[in-house]
Specification:
Layout (H helix, E strand, L loop, with lengths): L1 E5 L3 E7 L2 E6 L4 E2 L2 E2 L7 H15 L8 E3 L25 E5 L2 E2 L2 E8 L2 H10 L1 E2 L2 E2 L9 E7 L2 E2 L7 E2 L2 H8 L1 H24 L2 E13 L2 E5 L8 E5 L15 H9 L13 H19 L12
Antiparallel strand pairs: 1-2, 2-3, 3-7, 4-5, 6-7, 8-15, 9-12, 9-13, 9-15, 10-11, 13-14, 15-16, 15-17
Helix pairs in contact: 1-6, 3-4
The chain binds ligand PZK.
Length: 297
């Protein structure tokens, strides 16, 4: 299969007939660098979580998803699974429809974290919009906010105003995208909150398929969002990442200068990180990973 796009942790292949095959790997990136050690089950977890939320949100918007069933993938998919063949990609490959992607990242923030907290603490605004005084790091926002950015081909995405997003995709499309993403965030975050996970913010990628705005790419995963353990959330502090905090702590404490190669991850850290991804999936979805495609047991 022809490789169309290779990201840090996943690949996109041309599957013919207006379709793409998206394959999530077990690679983990931290501080923008990919670790040498794969995290077992991470690719299956992110794929299962995305498919779960696409089903949950199906009444809100169509999606690009055709199937995640390994039996329905094009036969050439087996070539991507190494010696294991089809079993090597089962559960972490999805067949999707090719979309006309919007040239914006649709970020929704429900809490003040990362660059949002930085901006607020300097200016009292988020994305140029006024917020109440007295918010702290990790405070919950009065309402979720749509804070779009442009896709930078390298380096970090650049925040843009809603009006700039409207200049890029049209006012009507920007309105639609904002409404869809804010509602999708509300629902996903509410479901996660009930199960002990805070989704502080998230990034959606939308595309147009047959003239309709559709959810594409990853949806409400720890790689496209900030997941916090609800019991460790305290405004005024920076809550740990539900998924990769042990990795970040190890890297921060190692004296590493954040240029490749990163220091190795110990087997303990790898196992703990794998367990955290699986726990995140099982908590937010209410499903067992063992019931998802590609289970070995
Ligand atoms: C598309 N990406 C991100 C980058 C990946 C994925 N349905 C679609 N139609 C057209 N293009 C895309 C999609 C989706 N989803 C997604 N870039 C383009 C991306 C690198 C690797 F697997």
């Amino acid at each position: 299969m022809t490789l169309v796009h290779s990201g840090k942790v996943r690949e996109l292949y041309d599957a013919g007939e207006g379709r793409l095959l998206m394959v999530a790997s077990d690679r983990l990136s931290a501080f923008d660098v990919v670790m040498a050690e794969p995290i077992p089950e991470k690719g299956r977890v992110l794929t299962a979580m995305t498919v779960h939320f696409l089903h949950e949100l199906a009444d809100l918007a169509p999606s690009h998803l055709i199937t995640a069933d390994p039996a329905e993938l094009p036969p050439e998919a087996a070539e991507l699974g190494g010696d294991a063949g089809l079993a090597g990609v089962a559960g972490r490959a999805v067949l999707v429809r090719r979309a006309e992607m919007l040239p914006i990242e649709c970020v929704v923030r429900g809490y003040l974290a990362g660059s949002g907290w930085k901006e607020y603490s300097a200016t009292g605004t988020l994305h140029g919009m006024a917020l109440p005084a007295g918010l702290e790091q990790a405070s919950r926002l009065p309402e979720p906010m749509f804070t779009p950015s442009t896709k930078a081909s390298e380096g970090h995405d650049l925040n843009i105003s809603f009006d700039e997003a409207a200049d890029l995709v049209g006012k009507e499309m920007a309105d639609k995208a904002r409404d869809l993403c804010v509602e999708a965030y509300r629902r996903g975050a509410a479901a996660a909150q009930r199960n002990g996970i805070i989704v502080a913010d998230t990034k959606f990628e939308l595309g147009v398929i047959d003239g309709e705005l559709a959810l594409c790419d990853e949806v409400l995963t720890p790689d496209s969002s900030r997941f916090w353990p609800a019991e460790q959330w305290r405004p005024g502090t920076n809550p740990p990442a539900f998924d990769k905090q042990p990795v970040r702590d190890l890297l921060e404490n190692s004296g590493w200068d954040k240029t490749p190669p990163p220091p190795p991850l110990s087997p303990d850290i790898v196992a703990e990180t794998s367990a955290r991804y699986i726990e995140a999936y099982e908590k937010v979805s209410g499903r067992r990973l063992a019931d998802w495609y590609g289970a070995s047991g």
